[in-house]
Amino acid sequence: MRRCGIDPVTPFAIDCPVQIAFGAGSAAALPDFVQHPVIFVQGSSGAASDPVLAMLGDVAQVIRCAGEPSVASINAALDALDGIAVQTVVACGGGSVLDTGKVLAVLAGSGMRLTEDFGQIDPALLERRANVRLIALPTTAGTGAEVTKNAVLDVPSLGTKLSIRGRALFPDHALVDPDLMAGAPRSVALHAGLDAVTQLIEAHTSVVATPFTRALTAQALPEALGALRTVVTGDVAGWPAMAWASLASGVALANGGLGAAHGLAAVLGARLGAPHGALCGRLLVPVMRANAGARGVEHCAAEVAAVFAPVENGDALSGLAAWIDAQGLPRLADFGATGDGLPELARLGSVASSSQKNAVPLSIETYEAILKAAL
Ligand SMILES: [Fe+2]
User: Fold this and answer.
1) What region holds the Fe-containing alcohol dehydrogenase-like C-terminal domain (predicted)?
2) How far is the CA of 224 from the centre of ligand 1 (A)?
């Protein structure tokens, strides 16, 4: 039996107040949870979310998210909601849409507009949302944002992404329906799937992982690895497992933290404007190699090797690294990163919040080596 490194004596808490419905067809229950006026948040294509919008009938306002949320995009959406006594926010889309919905549910009706100093937000507002119900329906299998209490926003003046955190950001309901995900373009399926895999591995190896989070990640990681291979080929049979892997990763990271790949991705995403999942996928193997020997890393590497057979004379992660390259996942240089900029990116990545929970403390030189390996 492989050991997962569970320590049964360390005290821990479990925090997941979201009512979750999982499975094909679970989105059909949406109208049961809605009180009007309702606003609907969706992505720019609408391909997956338009049928969900059609279930609602009368919608007071539709907010379209063109990209990852920022202070400006949230304030523009709040302006559009002025004069609407919002009772329900339905967010149907990828992580950016769900994060936008979370912030709107907290701030709608408050009269507040965001500044780049999130410390100015009334803590009481972030801990208890006033009368606005939030329902999240993910259309990508990756972020797990439907079960987390933070929203990631681009903060251009700081050159990074920062989270707004608080219990008020937990959705009331998450309807996790694999049928909403099955039409994702191949690149979205790849990026989101790599995000879910990275979240499972980083949550599993995090220094604040718990028996609860490790039970989730240990079960879901092999499911995720197998499903990722399947869904990028266009085979819809993998979507239920991918959807579960994403949901499990969200519950696990909310209760157990992440690691250096997410710390660096937060910095790179803001600096390069690159998709979060693509960055996570590009950073995952170099970070796991840097974490070699830390608790849980060997277990995850063995699970990776069981699905992605190592290349000749390669380590346990070499098969996954080769598969990622074969999928055409961009390298950091493809997003505009250069060798000259790596020391500063390494410094910023080392102090990012996710990095503080990495499996093992890493030096700035190691962060730079990780970036070089992904360049
Ligand atoms: Fe992520």
Assistant:
1) 191-375
2) 14
250 CA → ligand 1 middle, Å? 9
pLDDT digits (tens, 9 = 90+) for 278-336: 999 999 999 999 999 999 999 999 999 999 999 999 999 999 999 999 999 999 999 99
How buried is 37 (Cβ within 10 angstroms: 0-12 exposed, 13-18 middle, 19+ buried)? middle
pLDDT at residue 4 is higher than 90: no
Residues 156 and 216 in one domain: no
Q: Are residues 97 and 240 in the same domain?
A: no
Q: Return the pLDDT at 252.
A: 97
CA of 144 to the centre of ligand 1 (A): 8
pLDDT in tens, 73-98: 999 999 999 999 999 999 999 999 99
Q: In angstroms, what is the span from residue 81 Cα to ligand 1's centroid?
A: 29
Q: How far apart are CA 375 and CA 63, in angstroms?
A: 36
**364 shares its domain with 234:** yes
Please provide the DSSP assignment of 263-313 as one string: HHHHHHHHHH---HHHHHHHHHHHHHHHTTTSTTHHHHHHHHHHHSPPPTT
Burial of 375 (0-12, 13-18, 19+ CB in 10 A): middle
CA of 109 to the centre of ligand 1 (A): 30
User: Using CA atoms, how far apart are residues 34 and 132, in angstroms rounded to an integer?
Assistant: 10
**What is the distance in A from the centroid of ligand 1 to the CA of 276?**
7
In a domain, 296, yes or no: yes
CATH number assigned to the domain comprising residue 294: 1.20.1090.10
